[in-house]
Amino acid sequence: MGLLERSDAYWKFTGQCTQCGHCTKACDSLIAADMTLGDIAQALLAAERESETVDQLRMNIAANGQLVQAVRGCFFCTSCKNTCFAHNDVCDLIYNARVDFQKLGLIPREAWSSVLVDEEWDIFTAYRAIHGIGYSDLTRHVATEEAPAQTGFDVAFFPGCSLAAYGPELTREIFATVEELGGKATMIDHCCGSSLKSAGFFDRAETLCDNNSREIEQSGAKQLVCVCPGCANDMKKALERTGVDVEVVSLAAFLNEHGFTPKRELPDTPLCISKSCQDRDGTYLEQTCELLGVDEQTPTIFHGCCGAGGAVSAFDPDRQAAQADSKLSFAEDGSTVVTMCPTCTYTYAFRMMSAPRNLQNKHYTELLFESQFDWSTVFYQLNSMWYGEYGAWLAQVFA
Amino acid sequence: MNEQQQAAVAIIGYGTAGVNAAIALRRFGYAGVIRVFSDTNTLPYSPILTSYYAGGQKTYDECFPWSAEELAELDLEVVQDCPVTSLDVAGHALHTPKGDFAYSKCVIATGATPMCYGFPQVEGGSYEPLVLRSMDDAERLKGVLEDDSCKRVLVSGASMVALKTLEACLNRGKQVTLVGMNPHVLDFNALPQAAERFERGLLGYGVELRLGQTIAAVERVAREGADAADGGRDWQLKVTFSGGDVDYFDEISVSHGMKCNLDFVEPGTLEIDRALVVDEFMCTSDPDVYAAGDVAQATELISGQKRIVGIWKNAALQGECAGRAIACELAGAEPTAEGAFKGSISMNTIAVKDTLFISAGTMEVTPERRVEVRETDDMTVLYIFEPLPEGGERLVGFNLVCDHDEEGSRAYDTGAMLTLRIEAACR
Ligand SMILES: Cc1cc2nc3c(=O)[nH]c(=O)nc-3n(C[C@H](O)[C@H](O)[C@H](O)COP(=O)(O)OP(=O)(O)OC[C@H]3O[C@@H](n4cnc5c(N)ncnc54)[C@H](O)[C@@H]3O)c2cc1C
Ligand code: SF4
Ligand code: SF4
């Protein structure tokens, strides 16, 4: 092994890239870096070739502003990959590059200190603790002081961090429905580790998912219901890796299968669906459209990242905002933007706070269930926790 | 270690598949000699970029995806200008104009050559039609396209390569006529409804289409009124089409299919169907000879049969698979399932100016299969579904034509999404 831990991945990518340049034109970050994806792999290998020590390597990479832009400015939206005639795997390339960046100390701590979701405290657990949001009554496979651990569940519900933290009523309402339709349920209130991957802690993200798998196995659940396509993908891989025979289904597919009756009418505004970029082959989109009772062709659908992917906000907040703007600009005035992943809902809400638009912004579950996100309260609470009685503690924990 | 083990791993052909085989050999730990036989004296080039070079969108240097420094890191012994002329499978030796070379394992990665099947003998003087594969071909095409005296080009064939040539001509401001024996462009890659939308795009760029026709005769004739302003071109090509029409062109480009470069393989020494038949590790019928890229016939996912899927990514993945398997074997281990070639589907993307075409999977519409068409203002998508024995159906192919070619657009996202769906349904 050379100085780079992941040079194998860069060689692999280098072999597969013909340097046609189409990917560059698909991405503002690559345009800013004036690089193709193949250039990224080749630049990393060149930096390694030109360095004799790790310090030199760090300096060589840090001095290459284009390379840093390309690696840290990536949302993992796969727009470039989709444009590449060979569908070369940008995610594999950039995740590996982030691992090397992390190892080399090229990602500053403030970019990830609050999203170490495999530690006791991260931004979600802190928010939940400070604002009294807990699910010990729903995570029934875990023993509490009041109740022993239960087993023999039919289904485990995986809301994901954003929904569990920012939409507790919605989380509970969905959980109740999952149990009503699918049998005895428990909740897995952990993270899938996507923020760890973005920060270059790939192995830790996998370990986290593997631990989730084992927890699910112990619960006895036969099915894992995920709200977010990203969580579903990561958990599918982890269950496979750990040899745990549990079927992963999206909430939309689960509700379709069980003949769920929506608890409210769809809004009479036009719908504009923001396809999750983690939904690579559009399966979840199809399931969501079926659940909403809309033809996949009827609503406007826009692809690509909402701006939250890849922790780009910690590198270039303007790029995140511009990405959210560019996606929202597809939605016709007065329409309802329907998201498939709660983090996208959060991101659009955040953006529309400072740049309001005549749009409704709803996670698809909000169109089906009674409970709703209350974003102004969420943002107020998120902001205030840094200044209130917990401010000093947070500053210390996330320093 | 016996003599055979000490001999180099030979790679015949320094293209995509060859380079990827070399990269994989090193990635998977092979530290011995890798001897690469190249019939050129350049770095490996990308055939895909040749039309961009001819059309003025890429420089010469940009057609070589891998730098000399990168390739040097692989520590290859490249024998340049040295086409392998014969492969002695039993004797583990390669014969070349520069002598004979022993090998322990060999990867055949010699790609394909464009053919001019059916192109008639030119009367009235010699004329070699333009073809496109190598940098030399591209150089010739570029020269022609930069020549102001060449105003009208006839592109014969309607495949991907023909359309790429056509695009290069349009980019250079040439007047282009396309002649194709099938009723539609894109040959076996598109269903009629998609091809028609693509054809409307071509017509919009002033391309004259002569579909369902072939070139019956070509005669080199004197150019009437030729003067210095024509750059001294005092001849032109009189073309008679199969329907009887006659027209005049300055140049003709021909893309009438490809032929695998396997002339150096003695008949009967390796199993050859349309190309070298390989197993999931790219091994041919001889355990020490592997094949990858356009010369290999490996598993095509939809049919489950061994077919040539002549695309870049396939060549890269197959080269990698062969290199990895050889590295494994030479280290005394069995190749692992993880390193096996997972099979592939045909995938094509082409944009002529603003008209984009993406396809993947099969275009064979059998009686059981169902075609669904979805059309919007700027896009047509055709889906081919196949019933599943257990009920339901799977997507086995699609065509997408969009009137706007914009990188990162919904058309590309849709194309990628459908491609993934086909792959997932087949695996
Ligand atoms: C104009 C054009 C456009 C294309 N566009 C696309 C596209 O958009 N997408 C896509 O996926 N694919 C495209 N392709 C196909 C793609 O380029 C090939 O599938 C791919 O390059 C095959 O790689 P290979 O390594 O098998 O062959 P090659 O890349 O051709 O390499 C083979 C090498 O071996 C050499 N060789 C031959 N015989 C011998 C010998 N006896 N001894 C030594 N060396 C020898 C050849 O000269 C060549 O250099 C295109 C091809 C062309 C020509
Ligand atoms: S994944 Fe998205 S953000 Fe990353 S390089 Fe590709 S297009 Fe750009
Ligand atoms: S589009 Fe694909 S092949 Fe072309 S430069 Fe980008 S990664 Fe390489």
Structural write-up:
The complex is a heterodimer of chains A (399) and B (427). By secondary structure, chain A is α/β, with parallel strands linked by helices. Chain A has three domains: 7-107, Fumarate Reductase Iron-sulfur Protein, Chain B, domain 2 (Orthogonal Bundle); 113-257, AF0625-like (Rossmann fold), CATH 3.40.50.10700; 271-384, no CATH class. In chain A, 48% of the residues lie in helices and 8% in strands. Chain A contains 20 helices and eight strands. Chain A has a four-stranded parallel beta sheet, sandwiched between helices. In chain A, strands 6-5-7-8 form a four-stranded parallel beta sheet. Chain A is globular and about 60 Å long. Chain B has 427 residues and is α/β, with parallel strands linked by helices. In chain B, helix 2 runs parallel beside helix 8 (312-330). The A-B interface holds A 8, 11-12, 14-20, 22-23, 25-27, 38, 42, 45-46, 49, 78-83, 85-88, 275, 280-283, 297, 301-304 and B 16, 19-20, 23-24, 26-27, 46, 48-49, 52, 62, 65-67, 69-70, 73, 311-313, 316-317, 319-320, 347-349, 374, 376, 407-408, 410, 412-421, 424. The site of flavin-adenine dinucleotide (FAD) has 34 residues of chain B, from helix 2, helix 3, helix 6 and helix 8.
